[in-house]
Predict the 3D structure of the following.
Amino acid sequence: MKRSGFIASVVKETRLLMRDTHALALLFLMPTIFILVMSLALQDVFAARSGAPRPATAIKVELSDFDQSDASRDLTARLETVKAFGWTTGANRSRDDMMATVKAGDQTFGVIIPKGYGEQLAKSATPAALRASTPETAPPGVEVLVAPDAEKRSELIFLAALRNAMGRQRVDTALSRFAPPRADGEPAPEPKADVDPVTVTYTYDAAKSGASPSAVQQNVPAWLVFSIFFVAIPFAQTFIRERDLGTQRRLRTTNLASSSQIFGKLLPYYGVNQVQVVLMFCVGIFIVPLLGGEALQLRGDPVALVLMGVSVSFAALGLALLIAAIARTSEQASMMSALGNIILGAFGGIMVPRFVMPEAMRALSGYSPMAWGLDGFLELLLHGGGVRDIVPEVLKLGALGTVAIVIALGLHRRQE
Amino acid sequence: MTEPAETGGKTAPAIEVSHLTWRYPRASRPALSDISFTVRKGSCFGLLGPNGAGKSTLFSLLSGIRRPRQGEITVMGHSARTSLAQVRALSGLAPQDFAFYPALTGFENLDFFAGAYALDKASWKDRMAEAVEICQLGDHMNKRAEAYSGGLKRRLNLAIALLNKPAVLYLDEPTVGIDARSRRTITDAVAAIRRTGTTIVYTSHYMEEVEALCDEICIVNNGRIVSRGPIADYQQAGDPGHVHIRLARAPDAGEREKLFAMGAQWSDDRRFDAPAGSTLKMGEWLETLGALGLEAAQVRYGESRLEKVYIDLISDNADDGEAA
């Protein structure tokens, strides 16, 4: 019974990999740090995308009420119900102070309710004024101060909310005049519940109102895919190192099949990729919550998750092998794999979420294998998909890996 | 001697190379041109030549790294063109580079190569033990190879080549860049291996090693064989030997004149080369020095004639052209 060259290669490569602290740091530490930093840093960006509770850094608005009437207080209360904004009320600072604060960017908007607001509202909320207002019966006005760095979109939303609140207040005031007079001793009616006529259902998790994908839900797959593709750096390096040392040449005198050599090398790196998948998921589930972020939820078919991990790894190892076959020196290999990964990551929505990319760039990102991997994982983690939902991504990654491996083996054979 | 001669004699050849030519892609001239020689079984065959002469290419073809395309190589009767796997199985190569994994220990390196050679599961540990013993690596097996001294690295390189108990062992400058003690360990190991009947093909730039170990040599330059024959032929060739003497003090003019008259060729005021075709003649020189009251601080006799012949041959065939 002969010893197996393939198994010897696997054992050798595993030993080498375990002793390569730089490679291990690159493959495990780097994505962990990225996941932690980016998940926490982008927490609010992702939360602002859908029905999540109001983010801590909501658009800040300060309101000064110089009228101090029932009507101005009512308007203040109505505005405070708009949760898209972080309201500061009650200080009633002077216009100059507010101007300075808003100009400095400490508040995004400032609202000034002028003296006489209530009086003017009363004049404007008559049936006649509602039918046709004159300058005397015009609706009361408020002044809005806008910070220099306020987003136009935020400004439009804010003004719409403000106009809506003021309009409803005027209508409600007018309608209240038609209420029948209360009899003596009759208690004041309970304020009627303001029933929202719009029902919102969040598709991410219909059972949990307002649930939305958190930053960690999107960052874990992104940096996981990135780290899986990063195997190209140590893999190509070990290949070139063998060439430089002369061991590859020596092995040609041993009758060890080149397929045993190559696949004996690939297998440990495939194992590393699978450990990365498990580890990054664990970071998302257990470590991110410890630092104040939301925990990763493993949604989707577990079989599909495994299939996705295998597919991304297959494509990444194919590219790594191709780089190893093309590069002549370790500098070339490092350059090709590091630069290639960063470019694929940048286009693939790893570093910058694709929803913030312009349309043209988003279309371009469809050609990055990292985007395929990310799409597949997001299909599972965000949409709770199954194997059928990731077939296109699996096929694309599989095709890329196969083509890359075939070309690399051809080049390897030619070099021999 | 300079004309190729049949050195196989009655002993069966281990290696037969005939009309071997090799050209690298896009190279302007062949790295090897019409090379033919025979290596006897159990012999130690020295392959000499300057850097770029074509030795490494020849080694790669002999050891099965490359398959010959023009000409033929047979190793123990197996053609390298048609039975490369058998040729490889019969060969062991200790390349000039440290062709092993520095991050692995000596044991782990040997373990891997034992797998690569597909050694028998039942006996690979015996093979390893044998190689370790020959190369005296026993105390260093659990240290990482990157921590080895240059001499230990050379020994590990050799031990790997011995794992498959090769019928033909190719040693490409196995002692380059190491200290005298380590060189001795390796040359002793090579001599021991040779005694087991293993055929050895040996390259080195150290002529005294070649003289001590090899019984035939082949000098290659610019991809061609420029000389080939038994080592003894080279040792007897050329001018009679010289004895190199360094005196403890500078002789006076009269003493100097007397020595000059005997044939001394002065290098400086204390050192001279004296013609001495035999040890008898050398004795005469020492007697003369004694009679003159001159003390010899150093006497060197038997300067490698091989080296002189080698340098002469290489110089005669000097060519600025390239060869692999």
